[in-house]
């Protein structure tokens, strides 16, 4: 029996590495989030300042520092690349699944632990966030650790172990706070307090509260004091602007209706959403007699209400609700194996939807259905892989319906989407890259960027410009965006159109912005020597070269674009650029 258990556990670990870790460096980074959370830690490593977060050399106080530290450590180990910046959230997804497995295995059994952890790793939203460089996955891991440790403490009868688990909960709370702020304290309380009231043990909350509070305070205090003495305004801005005003504002960022997270949960929990009917039947049959089931119910419900009540909402905010949701799903499915009718109905519906998606992709590419054709003419292999992955998914789901063994049904359902999920890393359409991934476009012009070149960008691209060119002094054109707070201390970096035109006559200046903004201001700007418009992004240069050099470079860029369309290798293009640079004498 132990061999089977170990083999199944190793299979889940292998699944995690294949889906989450190995392909991390395949996809290009996208704007703005991935470049933002890569550039801030890069500047920490470059400057040696690990206390005050900076973006583009400007003070950036939207979040505390621990998430940046984790990314900086990853870059120190793996280098400044795509794999390194995505490794921490991927590892966080794996550790979150491990913590869910540990608590479920302890109180509901090994099979429930495996199913809940596999379910968590294969949820669309958990997978999408786990392979994407944002801080929500790291934050959710620490919150999960705090809540799971609290439940272990509740179930523990020995006083010393209870104190240990409460201290561990406080430790995770402190790290969650250092990652994203005060919400790290609100979420565990929203779970634990209603649960203890339900259990009739409210006095335990106040009796032991001092333990996690004291430990969390010890975790936060060193950096909290250092940032206070370095930047006294940090706590004022972070508490009032980023928390109180944002939560209560009538016109917040990302304003969405109260029900916004309902479709997010329904879509984000796929493919497991279709099995909720069977899972609910299982929970109803046995009721909420198990403490972990009651705890998971509080863990999901009250944070969900809290997030829904907030004025500003993003789909990623709800991530801490997915661990309890998968615990309830796994427990319900394993408690009602006889409910094959509801299970089969859900699986058949999903199989049909997946099959329809494969057919739509196939015909949209063959016939060219308007609005549905997402892959270009030279991406045939991508859509063929997508169709093959979806068809395999649908076939395995159909097999799950036909088999009579309930355990085999669950295994086939878990395995069905894995091939397609792995392919997702490789089949990103070029049109998506053209809109959201400026890295290749920026690297095309890297030979024209010198240490003394004045770089100007906009708030949507500044993170990418800083990251690719390793700069932290990029000026902004016309609007500050999320860097408005930092520009209060250095407003000379914000250029008006008039100031930009004046500088363009005095020195070499390069403008890198999105095409929409460039076209908006083009008539107000003086004519550039070089203008390269590539889809959504624009590279324009004023000064520093004469008209002949400008003509040579323009020809070079045109030939580069031609060679790229002819699918010349990157190595061949690089050699051509070096040759052209030598011929023109332009550095």
Note down, in words, how this protein is organized.
By secondary structure, the chain is mainly alpha-helical. The chain has 3 domains: 304 residues, no CATH class; 91 residues, no CATH class; 150 residues, no CATH class. It has 28 helices and 8 strands. The strands form 2 sheets. A 6-stranded mixed sheet has the order 5-4-3-6-8-7. A two-stranded antiparallel ribbon has the order 1-2. α1 runs antiparallel to α4 and α3 packs across α4. The protein starts with a helix and ends with a helix. The C terminus is likely disordered.
Distance between the termini: 68 Å
Cα shape: globular
**Strand order, largest beta sheet:** 5-4-3-6-8-7
Number of domains: 3
The tally of strands reads 8
Features:
six-stranded mixed sheet; single chain; mainly alpha; 5% strand; two-stranded antiparallel sheet
List the helices and strands and how they pair.
Elements: H1 2-21, H2 33-47, E1 54-55, E2 58-59, H3 66-78, H4 82-108, H5 110-122, H6 124-130, H7 136-155, H8 159-180, H9 183-199, H10 202-208, H11 210-230, H12 234-248, H13 261-268, H14 276-286, H15 291-309, H16 322-335, H17 340-366, H18 380-402, H19 406-415, H20 418-424, H21 430-436, H22 439-444, E3 454-457, H23 462-469, E4 475-477, H24 484-487, E5 494-495, H25 497-506, E6 509-514, H26 515-521, E7 530-534, E8 537-542, H27 547-565, H28 570-584
Parallel strand pairs: 3-4, 3-6, 4-5
Antiparallel strand pairs: 1-2, 6-8, 7-8
């Amino acid at each position: 029996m132990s061999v089977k258990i170990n083999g199944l556990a190793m299979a889940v670990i292998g699944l995690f590495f294949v889906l989450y870790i190995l392909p991390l460096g395949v996809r290009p980074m996208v704007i703005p989030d991935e470049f933002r959370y890569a550039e801030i830690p890069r500047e920490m490593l470059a400057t040696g300042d690990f206390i005050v977060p900076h973006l583009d050399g400007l003070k950036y106080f939207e979040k505390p520092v621990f998430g940046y530290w984790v990314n900086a450590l990853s870059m120190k180990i793996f280098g400044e690349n795509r794999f390194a910046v995505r490794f921490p959230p991927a590892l966080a997804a794996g550790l979150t699944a491990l913590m869910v497995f540990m608590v479920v295995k302890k109180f509901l059994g090994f099979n429930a632990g495996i199913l809940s952890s596999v379910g968590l790793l294969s949820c669309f939203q958990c997978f999408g966030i786990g392979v994407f460089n944002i801080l929500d996955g790291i934050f959710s891991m620490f919150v999960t650790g705090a809540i799971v440790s609290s439940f272990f403490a509740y179930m523990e009868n020995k006083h010393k172990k209870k104190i240990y688990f409460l201290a561990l909960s406080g430790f995770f709370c402190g790290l969650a706070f250092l990652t994203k702020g005060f919400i790290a304290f609100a979420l565990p309380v929203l779970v634990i307090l209603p649960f203890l009231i339900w259990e009739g043990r409210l006095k335990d909350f106040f009796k032991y509260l001092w333990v996690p509070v004291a430990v969390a305070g010890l975790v936060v205090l060193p950096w909290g004091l250092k940032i206070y003495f370095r930047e006294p305004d940090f706590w004022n801005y972070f508490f009032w602007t980023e928390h109180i005003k944002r939560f209560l504002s009538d016109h917040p960022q990302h304003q969405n209706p109260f029900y916004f997270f309902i479709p997010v949960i329904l879509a984000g929990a796929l493919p497991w959403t279709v099995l909720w009917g069977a899972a609910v039947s299982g929970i109803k049959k046995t009721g909420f007699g198990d403490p972990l089931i009651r705890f998971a119910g509080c863990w999901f419900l009250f944070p969900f209400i809290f997030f829904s009540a907030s004025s500003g909402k993003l789909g990623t905010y709800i991530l801490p609700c997915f661990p309890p949701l998968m615990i309830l799903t796994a427990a319900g499915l394993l408690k009602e194996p006889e409910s094959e009718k509801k299970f089969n109905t859900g699986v058949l519906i999903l199989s049909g939807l997946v099959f329809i998606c494969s057919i739509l992709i196939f015909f949209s590419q063959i016939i060219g259905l308007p609005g549905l054709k997402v892959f270009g003419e030279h991406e045939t292999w991508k859509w063929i892989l997508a169709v093959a992955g979806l068809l395999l998914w649908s076939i395995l789901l159909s097999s799950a319906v036909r088999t009579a063994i309930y355990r085999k049904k669950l295994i086939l359902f878990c395995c069905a989407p894995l091939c397609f999920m792995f392919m997702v890393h490789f089949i990103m359409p070029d049109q998506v890259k053209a809109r959201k991934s400026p890295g290749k476009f920026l690297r095309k012009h890297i030979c024209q960027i010198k240490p003394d070149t004045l770089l100007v960008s906009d708030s949507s691209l500044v993170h990418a410009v800083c990251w690719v060119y390793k700069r932290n002094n990029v000026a902004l054109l016309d609007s500050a965006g999320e860097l408005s707070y930092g520009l209060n201390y250095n407003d000379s970096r914000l250029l008006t159109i008039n100031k930009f035109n004046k500088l363009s006559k005095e020195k070499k200046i390069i403008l890198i912005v999105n095409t929409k903004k460039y076209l908006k201001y083009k008539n107000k700007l003086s004519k550039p020597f070089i203008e390269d418009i590539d889809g959504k992004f624009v590279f324009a240069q004023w000064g520093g070269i004469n008209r002949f050099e400008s003509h040579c470079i323009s020809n070079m860029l045109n030939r580069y674009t031609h060679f790229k369309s002819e699918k010349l290798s990157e190595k061949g293009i690089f050699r051509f650029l070096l040759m052209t640079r030598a011929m023109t004498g332009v550095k």
